[in-house]
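The records we work with from here on pair a chain with its fold. These numbers are not coordinates but entries in a learned vocabulary of local backbone shapes. To see the layout at work, look at the sequence and tokens printed below:
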Amino acid sequence: MVKIAAKTDIGRKRSMNQDSLYYCETPIGSLSNVFAVADGMGGHSAGDYASACTVKTIEREIMMNDDREPVRILKNAIETANEEVYTKALSDMSYSGMGTTVVCGTVEKDVLYVANVGDSRLYLINRHINQITKDHSLVEEMVRAGELREEEAKNHPDKNIITRAIGVAPRIDIDFFEVDLRRGDRILLCSDGLTNMVDDDEILKLVRESESMERCIDELVRSANRNGGKDNITVVMVDPFFNEVNR
């Protein structure tokens, strides 16, 4: 069994928390566990609705799905969430234009399966920090195309423009990743309210120095707020080998 710790915080500048998270440490449907972070966008309560609807739909669809293939299960859940958010936006003008990022994953034996849409991230952390997901953002696409340097991307005025999101189109393009895990790994999912305020080296330092996952996510949120807290901050941390270590 995995162990999971999670926290979401409104930050210092926003009047509403439009982030949502979900996790289940025990079997759900055909999966052994699941964890997800969604970062909503849209005026009024639209972003809040989009992210909450997405994680609730993912939970429901995974629970109902009797498939045995993790990637197919995650794909179906996210595609269904996209349909539900998109349909709601079409049927109610007060929700028009809403959307959300989502990053979610599951650990099956020694393999991590990840699905991603948008710029919320999943990292694998051990002695080093490795960003598994690729941001679906205008600035990151410019970096990958060689049009912008990493240093320039950090403070680019278009940094928050994302190129893929749940609920903005009838079909969604999802990235999938499979990662072999080893003892000592920690999985970190987060919204950009963390990564825009705390760089990767500082995240690694806090993870390696913290006495527990709970203490670690508290410190990560505190650090993001100390550096400005310009957005909502959500962090989920997973120990994929907790049951084996603590037998």
About this structure: Residues 70-91 form the longest helix (22 residues). The chain has one domain: 3-242.
